[in-house]
Amino acid sequence: MTTPTLRVSNLEASYGQIDVLRGLNFEVGEGEVVVVLGANGSGKTTTLRSICNMPIVDSSGTIEVDGVDVSNADTGSIVARGLAHVPQGRGTFPELSTYDNLMIGAYVRKDRKAIEEDITRWFDMFPVLKERRNQTAGSLSGGEQQMLAVSRALMSRPKLLLLDEPSLGLAPIIIENLFDTFSRLNSEEGVTMLIVEQNANLALNIADRGYVLEAGEIALAGDAEKLKNDPAVQEAYLGA
Amino acid sequence: MSTSTLLLQRIFDGVSTGAVYATVAVAMVLIFKATTLINFAQGELAMIGAFFAYVFAVQALQLPMVLAIIFAMALSALLGMGIERALLRSFDPDDHLPVVLITLGVFYIVNALAGQIWNYQPRIMPSLFPNNFDDKWTIGGANLFYDAVGITLSLLLMLSVIYVILNKTKMGLAFRAVSSNSESSRLVGIRVGRVLSFGWALACAFGTLGAILVAPRITLQPQMMAFVLVYALAAAAFGGLDSVLGAAIGGLAVGLINSVGLGFLTDIDAFKDFRATPLIPPLLLLLGTLWFRPSGLFGTKRVERV
């Protein structure tokens, strides 16, 4: 069996006295799109934050990236291993220009020329960003900022992209475009993805597999197709 | 002296003292941008930096003034990095109270240390620029001293250097990123602590330059920056606490208000006693800014998109 891109074992996390995750075990294989579904407060965001060892979270357990244990590494080293995280609420740099936002995404890279090529590439994929090249990120619309946040994350040429509720606060048409883009990024560029979403329908459409999180535990796991047809998932997340 | 000559003279004076306030204000803004905190020790750190230059140029090594200044700025940069690393790094930057109290502590410690080492007697600081009584041009009857021009040009040079560092270097990009969004900065692999260190280094080096430039005029002694700090704080708030250019313009504005505004006001007999209270105009400016335009002239108004 090949080593998964990401393996999470016995992940527990708490904010002060409150336990948020109670022993999660899951993995994301190379080239896969995996979605984590769950209601508010089920621990989705905390899972992503723990993977990147972000502050505020108190977590224990093992995180392996390509078989290497990064549980105790700082966020910077984890990013350098090929993870990119698009935090909830977009996580752009509002005072910096669109172009500088992309440049900063490539902060861990040194290949100046390839960086410029990548910027051109994401500008081609999101032409509206090219138009807004010199505008500050804070002046972009919600959808444009989300595209920028995703392109910014891709600028580090990640093996694994972590997306925290990319659809949050966006208009339905923009969400559909965005998920189309994710799907293309996966099939054309081979980017592995772990997507946390409340919009279960769209997420399951582009995902290979999914996990359903309930109160900090994995309640259901399986292929995206199987989850879509699961009566419990349909009732809770698909509004069927 | 005719009124127009007096006006010109007061503008010259205002711009050159304003340039000094501007340098210290810019230093405060650099730290504010990185950490969103006001470093109350900025003036004292600049003062001790001026003493470093004094040691290099006069007390110990008799180095040429330019070299003494460069060494003093470098040493101040190291001191700034040390303070960030040793005293501030372990605190949550979003919890402002302890951090601000630490800068106040540094203020008193540095001041007392300087007093212990160099005592409180005023000393004559050599000037980088010729500053004899007749080192001046006369324009429209007003005296434009070489050192006033030198100080103003130094401010412009410093602003250009800061502009290039912040906008044309990778470290500068990281600095702007951290000041915009420190959490996302971590997520792109920036070592935020190192960037903060860099901000402190830059601020302390340039603050020191300001103190070195003003010391020949007001003499070198541990209390020298007490007034300058208030002027600089007013200047930084007026210009916008997160705008380098705003701080520079604010510094010049404060210099001009005191020299031209207070100057002419106190020429009137009824107001002549205000000469003894030169801190009132900058404090009024500070209050007015906070009251009417809290983000200052050029500061960013934070707008949250939901």
Layout of strands and helices, then pairs:
The complex is a heterodimer of chains A (240) and B (306).
Chain A: E1 6-15, E2 18-28, E3 33-38, H1 44-51, E4 58-65, E5 68-69, H2 75-80, E6 83-86, H3 98-105, H4 112-125, H5 127-131, H6 142-154, E7 160-164, H7 172-189, E8 192-197, H8 200-206, E9 209-214, E10 217-223, H9 224-229, H10 231-237
Parallel strand pairs in A: 3-8, 3-9, 6-7, 7-8
Antiparallel strand pairs in A: 1-2, 1-4, 4-5, 9-10
Chain B: H1 3-35, H2 42-59, H3 65-88, H4 96-118, E1 136-139, E2 142-145, H5 146-168, H6 170-180, H7 182-187, H8 192-218, H9 225-239, H10 244-267, H11 280-292
Antiparallel strand pairs in B: 1-2
Helix pairs in contact in B: 1-5, 1-8, 1-9, 1-10, 2-3, 2-4, 2-8, 2-9, 3-8, 5-6, 5-8, 6-8, 9-10, 9-11
Q: Explain this structure to me?
A:
The complex is a heterodimer of chains A (240) and B (306). With 240 residues, chain A is of the alpha/beta class. Helices cover 38% and strands 27% of the residues of chain A. Chain A has ten helices and ten strands. Chain A has helices spanning 44-51, 75-80, 98-105, 112-125, 127-131, 142-154, 172-189, 200-206, 224-229, 231-237, and strands spanning 6-15, 18-28, 33-38, 58-65, 68-69, 83-86, 160-164, 192-197, 209-214, 217-223. In chain A, strands 6-7-8-3-9-10 form a six-stranded mixed beta sheet, with helices on both faces. Chain A has a four-stranded antiparallel beta sheet with strand order 2-1-4-5, covered by helices on one side. Chain A is globular, with a radius of gyration of 17 Å. Chain A starts with 5 loop residues before the first strand and ends with a helix. Chain B has 306 residues and is mainly alpha-helical. Chain B has one domain (3-227). Chain B is 71% helix and 3% strand. Chain B contains eleven helices and two strands, in the order ααααββααααααα. Chain B has helices spanning 3-35, 42-59, 65-88, 96-118, 146-168, 170-180, 182-187, 192-218, 225-239, 244-267, 280-292; strands at residues 136-139, 142-145. Chain B has a two-stranded antiparallel ribbon with strand order 1-2. The longest helix of chain B is centred in the N-terminal third of the chain and has 33 residues, at 3-35. The model of chain B has no long low-confidence stretch (mean pLDDT 87). The A-B interface holds A 52, 54-55, 75-76, 79-80, 84-85, 87, 91-96, 100, 103-105, 107-108, 138, 142, 145, 152, 156, 169 and B 170, 173-174, 176-177, 179-181, 183-191, 300, 303, 305-306.
